[in-house]
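About this split. The held-out portion is used to measure sequence recovery: a designer receives only the structure tokens and must propose an amino acid at every position. Recovery is the fraction of positions where the proposal matches the reference. Here is one held-out target exactly as it appears in the evaluation file.
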């Protein structure tokens, strides 16, 4: 059974909510990595958006095949990339199955630097000499300004991530700010806060309590979320340092913890 969309709706699925090594971590015997709570099983961070007109993937994590099978994904109209770190691009070759099913090239979107790095690693997918059925073939689109896919306006949100800049994304419809996704950021600059102010749902990087040079701490994510004023905010890109249940206990009202398979439904008018 494929992923079906009741019309008119936007359905957003959290494909993955974990940090770069995932949870549980290889070889770790901590309480979280041994937890039986399914919310503590976190694949690498990614989301999937579906409207009646388009199905959009954000990032191709190393867990893409597993995520797609879990959610019955069998069609993609576009892929958005936040940045070219391994935990966000190394499932790229799994796009070949979607190209095979659809028998056409797959549009991908990202910054010029991100697309350059993706092309360097997966060069065979860009303008292949032979359009062989069953092989991945992508059509790159450099993102500089807002654009539209499937009736949804997508606004890029540049945010710092250590030495690099990543793209978050704001998804809107007819001026209504539906979802902001900021998966990898060390801070949320004021211009981005203004762009997403009052968004209905915010999904934001909240790696851990201890400071990290490239990610928001949980307290930093909470501060940003409260300043943005989203109706509901959810932490993502989490480590194994605290369980889902324990993390929830520490958060103020209106801020929760995302988990793999979580869904958000928006009625479109």
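Reference sequence for scoring:
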């Amino acid at each position: 059974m494929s992923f079906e969309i009741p019309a008119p709706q936007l359905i957003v699925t959290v494909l993955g909510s974990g940090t770069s090594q995932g949870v549980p971590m290889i070889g770790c015997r901590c309480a979280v990595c041994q937890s039986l709570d399914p919310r503590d099983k976190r694949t690498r961070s990614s989301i999937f958006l579906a409207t009646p007109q388009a199905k959009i993937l954000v990032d191709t994590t190393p867990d893409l095949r597993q995520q797609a099978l879990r959610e019955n994904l069998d069609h993609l109209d576009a892929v958005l990339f936040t940045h070219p770190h391994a935990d966000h691009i190394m499932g790229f070759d799994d796009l070949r199955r979607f190209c095979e099913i659809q028998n056409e090239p797959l549009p991908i979107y990202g910054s010029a630097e991100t697309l350059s790095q993706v092309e360097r690693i997966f060069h065979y997918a860009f303008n292949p000499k032979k359009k062989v059925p069953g092989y991945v073939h992508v059509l790159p689109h450099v993102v500089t300004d807002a654009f539209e896919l499937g009736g949804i306006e997508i606004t890029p949100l540049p945010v710092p991530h250590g030495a690099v800049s990543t793209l978050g994304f704001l998804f809107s419809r007819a001026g209504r700010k539906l979802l902001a996704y900021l998966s990898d950021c060390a801070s949320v600059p004021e211009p981005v806060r203004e762009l997403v102010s009052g968004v209905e749902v915010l999904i934001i990087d909240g790696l851990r309590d201890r400071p990290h040079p490239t990610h928001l701490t949980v307290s930093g994510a909470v501060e940003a979320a409260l300043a943005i004023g989203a109706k509901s905010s959810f932490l993502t890109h989490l480590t194994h340092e605290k369980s889902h249940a324990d993390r929830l206990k520490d958060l103020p009202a209106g801020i929760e913890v995302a988990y793999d398979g979580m869904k958000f439904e928006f009625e479109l008018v």
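Annotator remark: The two ends are 27 Å apart (CA to CA).
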